[in-house]
Structure formats: C-alpha cells, structure tokens
Amino acid sequence: MACTRRTKTLVSTCVILSGMTNILCLLYVGWITNYVSNNGNVKVAGRTREKKFDDDNRGETLKIIERLDRLESVVNQHIQEKPLKDGDDTADQSLSDSLFAHWGHDLGPESRKVALKKFQYYGYNSYLSDRLSLDRAIPDLRPDGCRNISYPSSLPQVSIIFIFVNEALSVILRSVHSVIHWTPSHLLKEIILVDDNSNNAELSEHLQRFVDETNQQRPDFIKVVRHDRQEGLIRSRVSGWRAATAPVVALFDAHVEFSVGWAEPILHRIKEDRTRVVSPSFDNIKYDTFEIEEYPLSAQGFDWELWCRYLNPPKSWWTQKNQTAPIRSPALIGCFVVDREYFREIGLLDEGMEVYGGENVELGIRVREIHPVWLCGGSVEVMPCSRIAHIERAHKPYTEDLANHVRRNALRVAEVWMDEFKSHVYMAWNVPQQDSGIDIGDIRERKALRERLRCKPFSWFLKNIYSEMRTYTETIAYGVLRNSLRPDLCVDQGPHSDNIPILYICHGLTPQNVYYTSSQQLHVGGLSPTIDDDDNKCLVDVNGRPRLLECSYASNKHMKLSWLFTQGGSIENRKSKHCLELVESTQVDHGYQLALQQCSSQKWTITNILPGNVL
Ligand SMILES: *[C@@H]1O[C@H](CO)[C@@H](O)[C@H](O)[C@H]1NC(C)=O
Ligand SMILES: *[C@@H]1O[C@H](CO)[C@@H](O)[C@H](O)[C@H]1NC(C)=O
Ligand SMILES: [Mn+2]
C-alpha cells in the first residue's frame, strides 16, 4: 500500500524516484534541503500521517516532508524513472542512512553490505526478517472492549489471497504463518498465493517446497497462481479471486502480520450484510527494525490525484463513544475482505488498468472499487477490532513509470465515475482535460457497468460519503503561471514557513500548481484535499508585497486577494490596483523576483483553461 506516509530523508526522494538522474528533482530537493538546514531544524524523521491527528503541533520540517510526500507523485509524473543503479554513491549513502539509523550498529562490514543490498532490493530489512521467527507474536493493539465481544460460532469461511512480486521469502512466509495461526482453522478455507511473475527463481522454488509440505497435511490448502508475465497488482488480485472458493475472500499484500482475533469481527459484519466491504485497521511494521508501530484508528480516503490517505474517523463515529464500532470509510487503502459473489456482482476490479506492479499502484484498486461499492448501494468500513500490521517500505524497489500508471488509472476513474468532478483529477495531476495525450484505454465496459448497476452520481458520493473532500468547482484555469519576460521561470509557493511566493525554474511539480477561480482568487500550491488539511494558499497583496495566506483566513479578514487576470494579460489586484510583476534583482538566483507595483503591462499565462471558460 502506498498511502501510508513513510519516514523519509529529504534527499532520498529523488534518489528513490529517479535514480539520481533528474536534474530538476535534485535542484528542487537541494533547495528544500538547504532551506531546512539553514533554518537549523534538520530533524527529518516523522510521519505525515501523525499530523492529521495532531493539528496544532506541526513542525516546519514535517510540513516540508509532507510537501515532498505530495511531491513524490508529481515528481514521478515528470520524471523518466529509472531503478536504482548499483554503485551510485549518493544513492547508497542515503539508503545506508535509512537502514542503519536505528538498526545494525553491531553488524560487521560484510553483513552490512549484504543487508544493504537486500534493503535496496526489497525496500525493507529482509536481512533482519530472515532472522526473525516466522511465528513471532505481535502485540495485541485492539482498543478496549474488543476482547469482550463474542461472535457467533458459525461465520462464513474465508479464502486468503496474498499477492506479490519479488517479495522476500521470509516476509511472505511470515504472512502465511501468521494468518494460519491467528485465523480459527474452521474459518480458514484456503490460502492463495499470487506470484505476479517474480523474477527470482529461488523464491519460487522455496515457496513451492513450503506449499507442497503444507499440502501434504492439508491437500489443496495452499494454492499458487503464477503469472507468466507481469500483470500488475490489480489483475493479480482478480487472479487470486478467480482461484478462490470460500464464500468470502480477503485480499492482502504478502508483507503483513495478523493479530489475534482479526477475522471474526470482519466475517461477522459480512455475514450480517454481504454488501459490506471491510478493511482491518492497520499498524505499521517498521521497514528497518520490524518493530510494530501502533497507528491511530482511521478511515481511508483519497486526494484528487486519487492517491490514498488516512482520514480521521467521521464525527458520527466519535459521538458514539464506542471504539469497537465500525468506522464508515469513503475508500479502502488496498487490503480488504469482501463477499466473493458480491464482489463479482459489482464488477471486481477494472482489469483494463494496465499497471506494472508496485505498492502505490494499489491506489487504483481502492478508488476503483470504492465507487461502485458506495454508489451502488453497498458500504465500506474499517473494523477497529481487526488489526493487521503491514510493512511500509522505505522505497519502492521497482519504480519504473509508476506514477504514469497511477495517473492513467486515476483518469480512468475520473472519466467513468466522476461526472463534472473529473476536472478535479485533471487539475490535480496538472494535465489538460481535453487532448491530454494520455491513453487511458478502453473504458466502455466500465461505463456499461456503471449503467447496469444504476449508480448514483458522484456528487451524491461527495455529499453523503466523503463530505470531508474539498471541491473546486469555481476553478477556471490551472497549471503553471509564467511571465513572458522569463518563460523559463514559474511562480512557486516557495518555503512554507515564510509565505513568500518566489520564482523558480519551471518544473511543474505541486508547489508550482496555480489555480485561478471565478471569484478571482489565485491559489498557489497543491489542491488541499480535505477539510481536515490546511486550506489552500491564496495570493494576497499584504502592504504592497505578494504573500501566500490561507484563502479562508485572508477572505475572512477582507484582505486583498482578488485579482483581475486574463490569459496573456496582467494580474492586477482589484483593491490596490497593483500588478504582480517581475522585477530584476541581483539578490536572487534567477535574476528576477516577484513584486507588486504599478502595472506595466507584463504578460502572464496559465497553462490550462477548463472547457467552457474564457479568460
Ligand atoms: C470483559 O470480560 C471479563 C470476563 O468475562 C470481565 O471480567 C471484564 O470486566 C470485562 N471487561 C469489560 C470492559 O467489559
Ligand atoms: C459498540 O459497537 C459494537 C460493534 O458495533 C457493538 O457490538 C456494541 O454493542 C457497541 N457497544 C455499545 C456500548 O454501544
Ligand atoms: Mn503493501
């Protein structure tokens, strides 16, 4: 799964994403890194996720990391990705920092080398995993009350599906061991291992031996499905589903560990109502130490790029004051349990999604299946009493072109399901809505499915299921904002802390996203996805200086945030009548900086105008 945010060093972003090949990414990250170290707060560990639950307490560094996190998806989009190259010193150093920060101090140099190599390959510490018991117990992190709930003895049986590609054997085996150990045996019908064409022969061999041994005791208990070419995670899940025979199927990554009592709460909910699609709650297995890190209870959602994200549970859940109650959730983050036949009825997953495997790709799955489920009358929920620990990788071991696939899948979802809100996905990915040049494949079948299931409009989903999501129906133009004086420079939100917009070499990543609205606001930076996130930043004339302030704040304070803008014309503040312009400056890198001054007819353009609007 990709939506969980990882601990990340600043420089690793580019290393991981581009194999150090992309100058722009390095420039950008270099700039951020300098900024951070110049300000003396170089502590870079921390999960973004925490901020959702601790809103008042966010360090600047965390914000920057968050930006890099958001950046990641967009960086991908712009960068021809290459896998990590052997012998790249910078890459090695950053990997090494990441692996050995909290682990391996007493390891000899040879072992370190081996461990590092494996870490680079898998994105987690498989060297350590190989040395941990396959049967280790993980802590029982269920909230109070779960232990006292009793469930009917007759619950539907479940098929467990694990999908993987090039996963460490010990990690797969631990997933299998722990699900066997923690699922009551009369409920566990079978385990299905879907190998999406791993190119590791040793893995297949060892795995097959384990399967054969197990099946000698319980014939057909473990099934192996092997793809003879890489199909991606989405079709892997469907392959697993095809092989399953139990009334309920559970689809998981093969790098998880189950916890006591995980199955009963979920199977009970599905038994009560077969249209419920249920996710367990997730804890983290740290990629370096393999320690279990407790995560707060969350619902699961997505942003407008359709990357997944954890959400605070809805108000209605909090007011029940019952931590064991299911959490209604707009989406799923990838691992879920569903009635096998119901899953078929609602159209499985979109097999038209051409995806090369990788964890982030699962986003496509989540979003894909959530819409049919919700819009067509089922429900999605997260069970607090069912807990599973999942390894969040430090980096994706195979990043080839990942974001392009995610973007393509997102656009498929937008075109099939999102009606007038599809513009939001195009805006978030910063691609033109018409003639995007992106081949999203044939979506007729999915559209027919939507017809057949008589799904509700997407606006219904937003209003009733995902009311936290912000919408941007007022936006009329989006893209990067350039001045004809220096078309190689773009308006950029600059460092978060000082709220000063800057000019920077155009890279088109999130910090350079600009949105102009029909209420004449200019938003700079990524679209804030939900009301629990910070508001968008608006360009404001503050005492004659260009500043970026939260739009709602600036608006409430009646500040000067309205701008007259026409494509190819000036950007003039409606109150102060000053224009946003470039002025020469020897103090900045690129020779120009932004200023507000008497209008001198400088010309600005913004990349895309939404269909039906004139600027
Ligand atoms: C749970 O059950 C045990 C024994 O059945 C009982 O002693 C305990 O008080 C119960 N706890 C709660 C929170 O209900
Ligand atoms: C809390 O929620 C659980 C699960 O839905 C339910 O079984 C239980 O009765 C609820 N407890 C209370 C006190 O409402
Ligand atoms: Mn995963």
UniProtKB/TrEMBL annotation:
**Membrane-spanning ranges:** 9-31
CDD domains, from UniProt?
pp-GalNAc-T
Which Pfam families does its entry note? Glycos_transf_2, Ricin_B_lectin
Its UniProt pathway annotation is: Protein modification; protein glycosylation
* Gene Ontology annotations for the cellular component aspect, listed alphabetically: Golgi membrane
Cofactor(s) the record lists? Mn(2+)
The protein's GO terms of the molecular function aspect are:
carbohydrate binding; metal ion binding; polypeptide N-acetylgalactosaminyltransferase activity
Q: What class of enzyme is it?
A: transferase
Gene3D superfamilies under this entry?
Answer: 2.80.10.50, Spore Coat Polysaccharide Biosynthesis Protein SpsA, Chain A
Cite the entry's keywords alphabetically: Disulfide bond, Glycoprotein, Glycosyltransferase, Golgi apparatus, Lectin, Manganese, Membrane, Metal-binding, Signal-anchor, Transferase, Transmembrane, Transmembrane helix
Tell me the GO BP annotations in alphabetical order: protein O-linked glycosylation
The enzyme's E.C. designation: 2.4.1.-
In what residue span(s) does the Ricin B lectin domain sit?
478-607
As for subcellular location, the record says:
Golgi apparatus membrane
The record's InterPro entries line, in alphabetical order, gives:
GalNAc-T (IPR045885), Glyco_trans_2-like (IPR001173), Nucleotide-diphossugar_trans (IPR029044), Ricin_B-like_lectins (IPR035992), Ricin_B_lectin (IPR000772)
**Its topology with respect to the membrane?**
Single-pass type II membrane protein
Q: What is its main location?
A: Golgi
Family, according to the entry, reads as follows: Belongs to the glycosyltransferase 2 family. GalNAc-T subfamily.
Q: What is this protein called?
A: Polypeptide N-acetylgalactosaminyltransferase
Species of the source:
Cyprinus carpio carpio
